[in-house]
Amino acid sequence: MSKLREYPAILRLTIILFFIVLVLYSLIQAKHILYPLAISVLFSYLLYPVASFLEYKLKFPRVLAVLISVLLLLAVSSGAVSIIINQIQKLAEDKMIQQNAGENFAALQDFISRQFNLSPEAQNEWIKEKLSGFAGSEGEAKVIFLKIAGTIEALLFIPIFTFFMLFFRNRAETFIHKLAKRRHAELAETLIKQISKVTIKYVTGVTIVVIILAISHSTALSIIGVRYPLILGLITASFSFIPYFGTIVSGIVPLTFTLIAQNNPYVAMATALYYITISLIDHNILTPGIVGGKVHLNPFITILSIIAGAAVWGIPGMIIVVPSMAVVKIICDNVDSLKPFGYILGVDKGGLSIKKITDFFINKKKT
To answer: How far apart are CA 56 and CA 44, in angstroms?
Structure first.
């Protein structure tokens, strides 16, 4: 680093930019092996309490404790996927939804015809051209097929990676200590403890929030009168694995469904009102209260990071980037030369929340 400072500023900047571009290029090219590894790290932190309980409390052999934990994760995931697939099949075969969707599509075509002087026949012809062009484009179809195949391949590796990460977790910790040597032994121990604590709290907290939202969404949509509330609740709750954007975007799915498949504007209005309300509750009460953690990331930096994660790795990148930034902030906070970066990544504790607003007005009334 000291030798780098001897070069002119423009050359230093060029080297740094080249390094950043090289890292981003490597991350994009190797994403099919890197993002399963990153997701496996999150799953290993999620399953660590279960594996630890089985190993240390119930005295199971480590290999058996880890295997049971991974199989439990696979069972839960398979159950959720099978429920979603079953509900989608029922939804696709629902004659009433097909009829409502057809009537609403015809009404939309009539609106476009009146507003833009474009006949329904011309609209249908345009749609057929686009669909036939897509189906006839071998290049696009091949790219989509390769992406789906790559995603399935990556998903198959996740439970294997998770198993080995849990099984060899002590060796990974020892490896870090050996790298740190005696000079940085205390720093390495501090970083390992803080990163483990915050990551476990984040991963388990987000999972609990998603489960609560899945129950809340399914119950609320059922009360409102939306058809197939279970599948809509599960799908929209899963968006909450993506911070900030997830809860906001999740309402689009059931709202679009009610507008297309149900001829009742009041159901759509009630659905929109519910998702606006639950978004406020999630952002101000659920996520801060359950996820919490000692690392307070700057919302602006977090949003930029999520956008960058989406550009590099797509949806997996959006999920992985927040705990990754939390780890980066912990490292910056504990290394003197990096503390300015830790400061810009963070935010002052005690941000605004519904509880604080309520307490403010209650205390104001008392005075």
So the answer is: 17
Question: What angle do the packed helices 62-93 and 138-167 form, to 10 degrees?
Answer: 150
**Which pair of structure tokens corresponds to residue 332?**
């910056």
Rounded-to-5 percentages of helix, strand, coil across the chain = 85, 0, 15
For 97, 117, 123, the CA distances from 91, given in Å and listed in that order, are 8, 34, 26
pLDDT digits (tens, 9 = 90+) for 68-114: 999 999 998 888 888 888 888 887 788 887 787 777 778 777 878 88
Buried b or exposed e, range 344-359, using 16+ CB within 10 angstroms: ebbbeeeeeeeeeeee
Max intra-chain CA distance, the chain: 78
- What is the pTM assigned to this prediction? 0.79
Contact 260, 225 (CB under 8 A): no
Q: Residue 5: enclosing H or E segment and its boundaries?
A: none
Phi, psi of 346 (to 5 degrees): -100, -175
Distance (Å, whole) CA 75 – CA 73: 5
> For residue 13, which phi and psi values (nearest 5 degrees)?
-65, -40
- Over residues 260-274, the pLDDT tens digits come to 887 778 888 999 999
- Return the closest-CA partner of residue 254 out of 277, 225, 281, 215: 225
Residue 66 confidence class, pLDDT cut points 50, 70, 90:
very high
What single-letter amino acid sits at 273?
L
- Residue 184 CA to residue 329 CA, distance in Å, equals 18
Q: Residue 72 has which token pair?
A: 């439990």
Q: And the tokens for 220?
A: 């609320």
- CA distance linking residue 181 with residue 302, whole number of Å: 33
**Token representation of residue 306:** 């999520």
pLDDT at 354: 46
Cα separation, 58 vs 341, in Å, equals 43
- Which residues in 34-61 are b (16+ Cβ under 10 Å) and which e? bbbbbbbbbbbbbbbebbeebbeeeebe
Q: Which residues of 215-251 are buried (b: 16+ CB within 10 A; e: fewer)?
A: ebbbebbeebebbbbbbbbbbbbbbbbbbeebbeebb
CA-based end-to-end distance of the chain? 58
